[in-house]
Amino acid sequence: MFMILILILLFIIISNIMMFISMILSKKSNLDREKCSPFECGFDPKSSARIPFSLHFFLITVIFLIFDVEIALIFPMIKTFKLVNFFLWVKISFFFIIILLLGLYHEWNQNMIEWTN
After folding, report:
1. Bridge partner list, 43
2. Is the per-residue pLDDT at 35 higher than 80?
3. Which of 65, 90, 103, 107 would be a feasible disulfide site paired with 112, CB 3.0-4.6 Å?
């Protein structure tokens, strides 16, 4: 019983020493302001939060999410090719691709894809 108590006390002392050493070694210096400031997508985090944000960034993000979901919906169509009726699969796939192409045409027509506007 006494030996277990000594082992537990030894473990506690060793763990406290290790935590103290890691705390001393991991001290950060406040010498460089840029390294200590958070990175906010190229914006200065110390300035006003009411800077107008370009709507084009938002539109590009939405377009990316739409195409990402489209890819996630196309993968199961490939897997079900051999499991369902071929003509039904072709009709559904064709309909789905036409909807995607119409969406792409609309985005192109609204100049959402052109970055230099």
Report:
1. 40
2. no
3. 107
